[in-house]
Amino acid sequence: MTEYTEITVKDDGPVAVVHLDRPEKLNALTEAFWPQMRDALARLEAAGTRAVVLTGSGDKAFSAGGDIAGFGELEGTAAKRAFQAECLRTFAAIEESPLPVIAAVNGYAFGGGCELALACDLVLASERAAFAMPESGIGLVPGFGVLRGPAVMGRHWTKWMVLAGERIDAATAERIGLVQKVTPHDALLDEAVAVGRRIARAAPLAVRVGKTMINRGVDRGETGYSLEAVTMLQETADTAEGIAAFTEKRPPRFEGR
Predict the structure, then answer these.
(1) pLDDT for the residue 221
(2) Which end of the chain has the least Cβ crowding within 10 Å, N or C?
(3) Marked catalytic residue, from 6, 31, 115, 174
(4) Mind giving me the DSSP string for 63-85?
(5) Position 199 in a domain
(6) Confidence of residue 257 (pLDDT cuts 50, 70, 90)
(7) Angstrom distance (rounded) from CA 169 to CA 126
(8) Structural domain includes residue 38
(9) pTM to 2 decimals?
(10) The domain containing residue 78 runs over which residues?
(11) Name one Pfam family in it (predicted).
């Protein structure tokens, strides 16, 4: 299997396990992650894999979200739009992959990490897991989370997480439909792989058609609005202040209206 810098892939029979692999940074998602994730999915599909488990390395985080410092280094509208398009393209690749993708959320799933869980077909969570989409705290919104959150967990819960930046625990996430099963922390990966193997025993064409049919109601055209809206926010003074406050570890001082 190809060597990647941001993820590791263990292709073990019908079920592959993909680890977000920056545990020292709580598996924060750098610019390099997005194309690597798409490439891994394409290679696994070509290799005959039947299901994929996506989880985080280490014991604390699935993913703490995007690399905030990296956002601040993007210069110009074109670069910001291209970065946001890369993110949306990867979420779409997970949603549209013929392979069922199972998130095994082993800790923090914040920002882009929570969005990754929303893009997956099934979500299992450790009892220690926590979910949040706190981007408004740096002057942004989760470009994919605002699109998929309402369908998965309802409009009001999405607003609770996006507008108020509220963090929810695994039990709450299960209750609102973001998570399908909560497991003991040490049993999470084994349980997720067991679900993948159960899917792998089913007729592959039926699994592929079933996933496609269930996703038929997903509006793909809405990503264009998200792309432009988030690009606009990235260029505001509020976002510049939010990123500066984050890196300087101080409260932000927003002035936007």
Answers:
(1) 63
(2) C
(3) 115
(4) E--B-HHHHHT--SHHHHHHHHH
(5) no
(6) low
(7) 10
(8) yes
(9) 0.92
(10) 7-185
(11) ECH_1
